[in-house]
User: What shape does this take?
Amino acid sequence: MNILIFNSRISSLKFQLIDMPSEIVLAKGNIKKIGEPGSFMKYLQRDKDMVVIEEPVNNHNHALNLIIKTLLDPNLGVIKDLDEISVIGHRVVHGREFFKDPVIIDGKVIDAIKECIEIAPLHNSWNLEVIELCKKIIPDRPMVAVFDTAFHQTLQKHAHIYNIPYELYEKYKIRKYGFHGISHKYSFYRAMEILKRDPSEGKIITCHLSSKGSSVCAILNGKSMDTSMGFTPLAGLEMGTRVGTIDPSVILYIMRKEGMSIDDTKHFLNKRSGAVGLSGIGNNFRDIQVAAAKGNERAQLALDIFIFNIKRYISGYAGAIGGIDTLVFTGEVGEMSSFIRKEVIEGLEFIGIEIDDEKNKIIGQEIDISKEDTRVKILVIPTNEELMIARASHKLVKQRLKL
Assistant: This one.
């Protein structure tokens, strides 16, 4: 069964075509700068070298058609006919309390995704755009939605209810939802496979660190117990352009002083804050790390704040779930920055976390970077959200449609 997976954002569209249940990736790619000058697609066919296709891509409709054309191409393609695609799986960022598990997409699911757009406009609107396009371009295929928020639906009330009048939760469902759930879930289960442990046991903290967005998750006996993002992806750690957790009065103060509207403030918090606002350089932590090494004080400050807060979440979550036996780094920064991993772990020896400096020099691959005979295992695990979506889609479609 070939499952086509989409992970859509405002200016990019990632995809993988995966044969299930063998989990063989037949082709994958990412179209970047959609609607911008210099758009291009990186495309990798199984057992072949990556190619870059430079082509103006005006919108997601154009992007989806380019993907289909490439998958069918006599030289680059891996299928001869669209009928070889059995199922389409979609990453959807926000599912509120509507969805605790993957679902077959129907009219009611689409309506619920639409309802979530007001609190995740930068994500759900583009997730829905690609779902609607697939209905037109690749019709009559079962489609599955897998939600980033679903993994965190196991948070207990004391972990997800905010300190506001309770009737506002009852009326508007204002609460912590958490994000990156697909990545945290993949990292957790992969860690259990590597360590040959029972997924229903253990105290694991996963750190999804990326220039786009970062979050930390505490997992107890296979269930998410707390996570750093909140009602939206704005909360928690400092991110590339997002502010992270901040005293709400600061926002009100800046709005008044700068004469900012609600839309201005939303842009300010999502696009002008975090590492880009602190460093004045950009949102890429590699560039910030280079600048800091050359003595740029603002770049160093951005790094220091990022690292300090990751430490704070790890130590705090270890206390909240009664200890830690495994720490996982994933995401672009978690996988590729040995420097940030080492700085994060420095000072956490008191809870049994100790790093092997030589192993830590290895980047971009699965590896145990903990010292020998230490109580807490430290794993680097490249995330694979698309595989998690494929697994969920395969299982659900087989159960529901009896394929």
